[in-house]
Design brief:
The complex is a heterotrimer. Chain A is mainly alpha-helical. Chain A has one domain. Chain A is built from 15 helices and 6 strands. Chain A has a 4-stranded mixed beta sheet. A two-stranded antiparallel sheet of chain A has the order 4-5. By secondary structure, chain B is an alpha/beta fold. Chain B folds into 2 domains: about 170 residues, Rossmann fold, CATH 3.40.50; about 180 residues, Response regulator (Rossmann fold, 3-Layer(aba) Sandwich), CATH 3.40.50.2300. Chain B has 12 helices and 16 strands. In chain B, the strands form 4 sheets. Chain B has a 6-stranded parallel beta sheet, with helices on both faces. In chain B, helix 3 packs across helix 8 and helix 9 packs across helix 10. Chain C has one domain: ABC transporter involved in vitamin B12 uptake, BtuC, CATH 1.10.3470. Chain C has a two-stranded antiparallel sheet. Chain C is globular, with a radius of gyration of 19 Å. The chains are: A mainly alpha, B alpha/beta, C mainly alpha. Chains in contact: A-B, A-C, B-C. At the A-C interface, helix 7, helix 10, helix 11, helix 13 and helix 15 of A face helix 1, helix 7, helix 13 and helix 15 of C.
Chain lengths: ~350, ~425, ~325
């Protein structure tokens, strides 16, 4: 099952789509994990565990979705995890400052934020978009390699996180935060529902519109896209903005669950996001991959780790497994492609 | 040296607490019957009251203000031991650590004791989870050692030990998994307070007794918190400094900003020295318990300042890093007047004790990791209380304050210090050579 | 790592591929300028900046990173990336450390370097023979080697104190020059000779410039890339020894995040991630720049968190003009 099948907007592809699913190794991997899980533990298929699984997928899935869009254009975004935390911190700090200016105390007992939650979330989203735009402009207009640009923003953001909070956490206490973090819509946690909403929006845009399809064109052959009249620089900036917004949403969902935001959180999550996108079939060179496949990658990754946790496997062995699976998943597909080509 | 016979506890059924009785001659030297715990608590109160009234040393006061120590110190509990327990050096069981394979003498195995053998309902299997960070950190692996030892004493306890590698979110996920698996009890060592509140709240809401060790969580409904003696650590570092020298140019190697360990230790130290004019704050680094970072910051500080006389370290790793940097730069005796740079440390690692014997590190205020067993016993007692079999332990379980260790025996403001040879509880591997 | 943006850049590659000096030159001016500015700034901020003691501290702080960066630079010249260097370093040291009870310096140091070589070989096979993108392969190997380091050591630190030769590598000196600094210099010279005057060096740039063209012109690109990963692995292992010897302490949790510092130095040194350009001199200058920045910030009492922001700014400041001048569509 290749991304090509989903890349072109067309009406009735449900049949071939399902057939493609059946042939896809990652779908079988997911099925296998669930099968093994249910056979080896009475707790794997319980409502409580599935709920945990969905919550785990939500945050890392959101980061991976944004990463996928950037990867489609042949770029990379290393700053997503730091941005995730930074955007919420900026939201809280800005609102606290605003409150002090207009004379209202929104920061109580030192570092509990009790002010308007929607405003914080709005500022967080704006910050995500803004930093994404900066990344995009640096990459597309100032011609800095995306690895370097986002490595620089990663480093700077991590530093800022500590400087802005002075090492203290900010507690987030409000009904809205609690709802985002803990509530459920039926059996589905709100965080997972948000993830699905973003997923659907991206599938519709990237795989369903002409504009969205341009990411693939840029990733496939940038010079050709340029000659075809596509303003590639703008789309690159857009890709990073999308990534930034996804990171901000991930940050909101993440901190709502922890009911706090703290500088050292989410260290290294950007590498996990890259791994998941790649396991889902996104190519680092660009032009291959899709939000849908990243969903599959996230589910496989989270379900696999969840299974290891249910089994009580030690963390070192979990890390070993992640590294091996990452290499195997890409290695096997490369080897099979070589076989096909030769 | 103390004379103790050794047993392989995990294999023999013999009760080990009998071995805790030791020749008490040199060890019951605490003059009062109060016990060192109470003496230290009284000193804590004394200096805290003085500091609250005023802090005349401006540089110290400025640092104190900047990092907001007052808030952290005010909420840190200082109190008596549960059940009127009095601890004296020499108590506690000896065994081989199941994870580290090192010889351990664990000081508090008689605190809130639980007899060996099946607990509560002998026909029931109790599944308990211990989640912490740092299986590859000597202090933390010793914490796990004591917890696993305690669990192994009771055949109907199944203990799962998971390392969350300093990812707070991961620790929360582990707890959620245990809630889904309907575990009977949870013990955790939280790295930071704020992110751990919600998962603990969820565990309690699911009816699972939960106990935290050493550092705290932001949860207000946690079953019990086993607290370490951070306050007494920083206090004794300050007391030693005041006793040894009326002035000093100090560089700070601290733990990560915002962690309980950093705030309480550094805050307590500053409270003690805050009203003595002769102390200067030269530089202030956050080296996050990493030896290499402490090494680098100390090396650079040695270049920036030629008159450093005190190196204050909030941990064993930091102290070792600082010492290595000072030695590499050949500046061990470069304090004003050709004196030795004073190195103050926490964490009674065997490595650190070796340097105290050699005269390189001046004092260490022990912060023993050997408290995991208390957590296991506390959570079992909570399960028992839930089942109506016994009283629940108190919510705040203080651990005994420990006296500082110095090369020669000293008496500092009523505290009898111990020499390295009198301290059998050091953790971690013996540094060879 | 060859991304799409880099493949587009290949259009102009053949003429640049063999003109190594010109490529190294484009960023060199901004780097040297920054270095001079920093030294002047340093003298203003602390009068003892250029004292022997301080220079010693700065060079010792960057010796290990510099040596790792040599290996990384070679890898990047061929158009690949090695994220696993810190993991290789710590795993190698642990493996060597497990042999400390034998008391043999040859065994301990030999095993350490051999491990670095072997893991590097594995990286090379995954990337060059099987075709896994190096970002992924080395990311996976990073996780695997760190996990293995923990498992093999059981999480326990090891102490190399009984092995005098080992400690000498980190703490010894020859004619007053500390061994790590000496190694930094010697290996630097060797690497410069390799890249500028050897066939292998030319093959590195050719492979990085345009893999297909290089292969067509007779270069065994698979072998070249495999060897370069092995070199990176050995450099990482050696750097690991220097760090562990200095502290006399092999900690399986150590060197966390070092790969990013090494990458920062390499990139700052002018190596383009697309491949085909970069120089060892540039890397060395970059390592010294980072060392000076950290030293100054520490002396000024700036928190490590703010230091990160400054480091990021420095990287951007040096890299930006170089990218503009190249005018690559990236």
């Amino acid at each position: 099952m290749s991304a090509a099948g989903l890349a072109s907007p067309s009406a009735s592809r449900l049949g071939p789509f399902l057939a493609g699913l059946l042939r896809d190794p990652i779908v079988w991997l997911i099925v296998a994990i669930f099968a093994v899980g249910s056979l080896t533990s009475e707790y794997y298929l319980t409502a409580a565990n599935i709920e945990n699984l969905m919550r785990n997928i939500a945050v890392i899935g959101l980061l991976s979705l944004g990463m996928t869009v950037v990867l489609l254009t042949g770029r990379i975004d290393l700053s997503v995890a730091a941005l995730m935390i930074f955007s919420v911190i900026v939201g809280v700090v800005l609102m606290a400052w605003l409150g002090s200016v207009i004379g209202v105390r929104w920061l109580v007992r030192g570092n509990t934020f009790a002010g308007p939650t929607l405003a914080v979330m709005g500022i967080a989203l704006a910050t995500g978009a803004f930093v994404g735009a900066i990344n995009g402009i640096g990459v597309a207009y100032l011609k800095v390699a995306s690895f370097i640009m986002t490595l620089v923003s990663l480093t700077a953001l991590r530093g800022f996180n500590y400087v802005l909070t002075n090492g203290h956490p900010y507690y987030l206490k409000s009904p809205l935060f609690n709802w985002v973090g803990d509530a459920k819509l039926g059996p589905v946690p709100v965080s997972f529902a948000i993830f699905l909403a973003v997923l659907v929006a991206l599938i519709a845009f990237v795989n369903g519109t002409v504009r969205g399809g341009r990411f693939y064109a840029i990733g496939g052959n940038e010079k050709a896209a340029l000659y075809a009249g596509i303003k590639t620089a703008r789309y690159v900036v857009l890709a990073f903005v999308i990534s930034g917004i996804c990171a901000a949403i991930a940050g909101i969902v993440f901190t709502a669950r922890l009911k706090s935001v703290d500088a050292p959180l989410a260290a290294g999550y950007e590498l996990t996001a890259i791994a998941i996108a790649v396991i889902g079939g996104t190519a680092l060179s660009g032009g291959v991959g899709s939000p849908w496949r990243t969903l599959l990658g996230s589910v496989a990754f989270a379900a696999g780790l969840n299974l290891l946790a249910i089994w009580g496997v030690g963390t070192w062995y979990q890390n070993l497994a992640i590294g091996i699976v990452l290499i195997l998943s890409v290695g096997l597909s490369k080897l099979s492609r070589k076989k096909v080509q030769s | 040296m103390l004379e103790l016979s050794r047993r392989q506890l995990l294999r023999s059924a013999a009760a080990v607490s009998a071995l805790a009785l030791v020749p008490v001659t040199s060890l019951l030297a605490q003059a009062d019957d109060k016990g060192v715990h109470t003496i230290l608590n009284e000193l804590i109160k004394k200096y805290s009251d003085e500091a609250k009234a005023s802090m005349s040393n401006e540089e110290v006061a400025a640092l104190f203000e900047k990092d907001g120590f007052r808030d952290y110190l005010d909420v840190y509990p200082v109190g008596d031991l549960a059940g009127g327990f009095v601890w004296k050096p020499g108590m506690g069981a000896t065994f081989t650590g199941p994870h580290s394979k090192l010889e351990i003498k664990s000081p508090f195995t008689d605190y809130l004791p639980l007899p060996e053998g099946p607990v509560l309902d002998p026909d029931k299997k109790y599944r308990i989870g211990l989640v912490f960070h740092g299986f590859n950190h000597p202090w933390l692996i010793s914490l796990a050692d004591t917890a696993s030892w305690e669990a192994a004493r009771h055949p109907n306890i199944e203990l799962e030990v998971i390392d969350a590698e300093f990812d707070d979110n991961k620790m929360g996920q582990v707890i959620d998994t245990w809630i889904a698996k309907q575990y009977d009890g949870i013990v955790l060592w939280p790295s930071r307070e704020a992110p751990m509140g919600p998962p603990v709240d969820r565990a309690i809401a699911a009816g699972i007794p939960t106990v935290s060790l050493d550092r705290r969580t932001s949860s207000e409904v946690i079953s019990s918190e086993v607290l370490g003696n951070f306050y007494a650590n920083g206090l004794q570092q300050g007391l030693y400094l005041k006793h040894a020298a009326p002035d000093g140019n100090i560089i700070f190697n601290r733990k990560d900003l915002g962690s309980t360990a950093d705030s309480i230790r550094t805050g307590a130290f500053l409270e003690v020295i805050g009203n003595t004019p002769g102390y200067k704050v030269l530089a202030n680094y956050h080296t996050n318990s990493q030896r290499t970072l402490a090494f680098k910051s100390t090396a650079d500080a040695l270049q920036a300042f030629k008159d450093i006389s005190v190196s204050f370290n909030t941990g064993g790793e930091e102290a070792m890093g600082a010492l290595d940097a000072i030695r590499e730069a050949n500046r061990l005796n470069s304090a004003p007047g050709g004196k030795k740079i004073m190195i103050l440390a926490n964490d009674d690692a065997r490595e650190v004790l070796k340097e105290i014997r050699a005269g390189n590190i001046d004092m260490v205020s022990p912060y023993t990791p050997l408290i995991g067993d208390i957590g296991i016993r506390a959570v079992v007692m909570h399960i028992g209380a839930k089942e109506g079999k016994n009283e629940a332990p108190p919510k705040l379980i203080m651990t005994p304050n420990l006296p500082m260790i110095t090369r020669e025996k000293m008496n500092i403001e009523g505290i009898e210090t111990l020499t390295p040879d009198e301290w059998p509880y050091a953790y971690g591997p013996e540094a060879s050579g | 790592m060859t991304t799409m943006e880099d493949k587009v850049a290949d259009r102009g590659a053949p003429s640049r591929t063999f003109d190594m000096v010109r490529q190294a030159g484009s960023g060199d001016l901004s780097r040297l300028a920054v270095l001079v500015v920093l030294v002047v700034l340093g003298q203003i901020i602390t009068p003892a900046f250029l004292s022997l003691g301080n220079v010693h501290v700065i060079l010792m702080a960057v010796a290990a990173i510099g040596i790792m960066a040599y290996g990384m630079t070679l890898v990047v010249i061929t158009g690949e990336i090695d994220l696993s260097v810190a993991g290789i370093a710590i795993l190698s040291c642990v493996v060597g450390g497990l042999l400390i009870p034998t008391g043999s310096a040859v065994l301990v140091i030999g095993a350490t370097l051999a491990t670095g070589l072997l893991v590097g070989l594995l990286n090379g096979v995954l990337v060059a023979a099987i075709g896994i993108p190096s970002l992924i392969a080395t990311l996976g190997m990073l996780g695997i080697s760190r996990a293995l380091a923990n498992i093999a050591s059981g999480g326990q630190a090891l102490y190399p104190e009984p092995i005098a030769a080992y400690l000498w590598l980190g703490r010894g000196a020859v004619a007053g020059v500390p061994v790590p600094v000496l190694l930094l210099a010697i290996l630097g010279v060797a690497a410069i000779l390799l890249t500028r005057y050897s066939t292998f060096g030319r093959a590195l740039y050719a492979t990085g410039g345009n893999v297909r063209a290089a292969a067509l012109s007779g270069i065994n690109t698979v072998a070249v890339r495999t060897v370069v990963f092995m070199i990176s692995g050995v450099c990482a292992a050696l750097a690991g020894i220097l760090e562990c010897a200095r502290l006399s302490y092999i900690n399986p949790a150590g060197l966390e995040g070092m790969e990013l510092s090494v990458l920062a130095v390499t990139v700052l040194g002018g190596a383009a991630l697309a491949g085909g350009s970069g120089s060892i001199t540039g890397t060395l200058v970059a390592a010294v720049i980072i060392g000076i920045v950290n030293n100054l910030l520490n002396q000024m009492g700036v928190s490590i968190y703010l230091q990160q922001v400054v480091t990021a700014a420095v990287i951007l400041a040096v890299v930006l003009p170089g990218m503009w001048r190249r005018g690559i569509v990236k």
